[in-house]
Every structure is written in C-alpha cells, then in structure tokens.
C-alpha cells in the first residue's frame, strides 16, 4: 500500500486516499512550492477551494510538474456567496479558468448554505452531466443536510468532507455516510495541531517510531477516511505522506477512537455565519 492507493467512489471514480490540502497556503510561490514538493514525493491528490484564493497557483504547479493530468486528482469547492443555480455554474467556470484545467476531478459544496444548497446541487448535477467534472460531493454537511439534499437530488454525493480528528471522530456521521455509499473525507485531520500533544497519541507514536501526525493519518486510512493534511513545509509534506509502511493494531485504533470528545476547532455546520 502506497501514497497512490485509491478508494472507489460511488460513481466508480478512483480517488487517492491521501492528498495535500492547501487551505491558508498563499497564492504564488508558497502554494506552488507546496504542490510541487507534494507531487515530487508522490502525492496525486490536491485539495483547494475558491475561497482559498490559490487556485491559479495550484494549477500552475500542476502544469509545471510534468505529471500527466490523468494521474492527478484535483478538488475545488464553490464558496457560500456563489451558491445558487446560475451563480454555481459561473463559479465552476471561474475555477476551471483559474486552475487552467480542462476538467476538475471533484467539485464540492463548501458549506450547507440554507435555502441555497439544493439549487447549488442542481447546477452541480448539470456540470457533472457535461463531463467537466468527474465527481460531485459536499463538505460540512450533517446527516439532516444530506437527507434534505438527497430528497431533491438525482445524484448521491460521492464525498462528505468534514472536520474530523481524534477529538471529533464523527462516528455517527461516518456510519450514516457509509450506509448511503458516501465516502468521508477529513479536513483538519490533525485538529489544527491541537491534538498533537495528546499523551496517548505520543505513547502510540513512540511505539511505532512515528510522529503523532503520522499516527493520526494512519488511523484515518485504516478507518477508510480520505485524509488531506495541509502543510507548506517540505519536510512535513513528506512526513505526512510517509504513512504506508506500518499498520496500527486493533487495540491502538480503539485507543485513538476513545479520545473523542466531540470537540470542534472549526465552525459548526448548523451555526456558521459566513
């Protein structure tokens, strides 16, 4: 098992299980270098978003990498102020233009904007039918948002990208998504760094001669959670990708499961206001 290992989405598309997130990576040299280093190491999945303001840099790094486009998996997202039917169609075209790609692999609704996400999804179904995107999904959706979406939708989302780390393991939502055939993807898998000092995780890391970050990412992978740790540091990007040469025991997986305290470091999808 290596960094190119994939998981099959419900429409048959194969998605890498581990990718690079570029939230807060500055447009220009910073994001370009991060993507370049990731691709050189062997990453094949890059996750960006309109609101990150770095789609152009991601696209430039991809073009200059020399990696064949068909080997790559590029995700971007429609932001809240562009949700709705017509505005989503336009937002997608703008992202495609900024990335300078012929197609996008995965397009996501970034947050469930009340009163708009169903119209946004209708536009995304149309984009999917056009072939300009290989798969469509959502981000930050609770089960009740998904229930509502799917009561109107023709296509079941392939992904629900959510805040997920050992302090917020989202077990109930993961079980719900599994039942619906929706893959769960973790954003902020390292809890914005706030779980790295946990003593249980440090003990497990010492046992495997790995870092705490590597233990957490391995825990994601063994739960079939797609994970996209973000970094702009070359050594960290390499470290985060070096999680395919060991396996956690069932006992250690259970210990990490037991750290859950339903603690969010990001916004709650029911109360966000942006």
Automatic annotation (TrEMBL):
The active site is at 52 (proton donor). Pfam families: Aldo_ket_red. The record marks 77 as: Lowers pKa of active site Tyr. CDD domains: AKR_AKR5G1-3. Keywords: NADP, Oxidoreductase. Substrate binds at residue 110. The keyword S-adenosyl-L-methionine does not apply. GO terms for molecular function: oxidoreductase activity, acting on the CH-OH group of donors, NAD or NADP as acceptor. PANTHER family: 2,5-DIKETO-D-GLUCONIC ACID REDUCTASE, NADP-DEPENDENT OXIDOREDUCTASE DOMAIN-CONTAINING PROTEIN. Belongs to the aldo/keto reductase family. This is Aldo/keto reductase.
């Amino acid at each position: 098992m290596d960094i190119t290992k994939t998981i099959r989405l419900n429409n048959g598309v194969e998605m890498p299980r581990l990718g690079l997130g570029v939230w807060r990576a500055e447009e220009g040299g910073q994001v370009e270098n991060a993507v370049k280093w990731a691709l050189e190491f062997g990453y094949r999945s890059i996750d960006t978003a309109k609101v990150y303001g770095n789609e152009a840099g991601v696209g430039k790094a991809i073009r200059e990498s020399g990696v064949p486009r068909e080997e790559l998996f590029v995700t971007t997202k429609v932001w809240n102020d562009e949700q709705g039917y017509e505005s989503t169609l336009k937002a997608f075209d703008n992202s495609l233009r900024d990335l300078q790609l012929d197609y996008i692999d995965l397009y996501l609704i970034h947050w469930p904007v009340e009163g708009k996400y169903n119209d946004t999804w209708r536009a995304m179904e149309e984009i999917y039918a056009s072939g300009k995107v290989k798969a469509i999904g959502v981000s930050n959706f609770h089960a009740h948002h998904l229930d509502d979406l799917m009561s109107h939708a023709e296509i079941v989302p392939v992904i629900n990208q959510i805040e997920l780390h050992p302090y917020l393991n989202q077990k109930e939502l993961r079980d719900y998504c599994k039942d619906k055939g929706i893959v769960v993807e973790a954003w902020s898998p390292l809890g914005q760094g706030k779980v790295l000092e946990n003593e249980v995780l440090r003990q497990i890391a010492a046992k495997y001669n790995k870092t705490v970050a590597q233990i957490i990412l391995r825990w994601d992978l063994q739960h079939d959670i797609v994970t996209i740790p973000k970094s702009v540091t070359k050594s960290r990007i390499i470290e985060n990708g070096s999680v395919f040469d060991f396996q956690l025991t069932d006992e250690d997986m259970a210990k990490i499961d037991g750290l859950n305290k339903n603690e969010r470091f990001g916004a709650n999808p029911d109360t966000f206001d942006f």
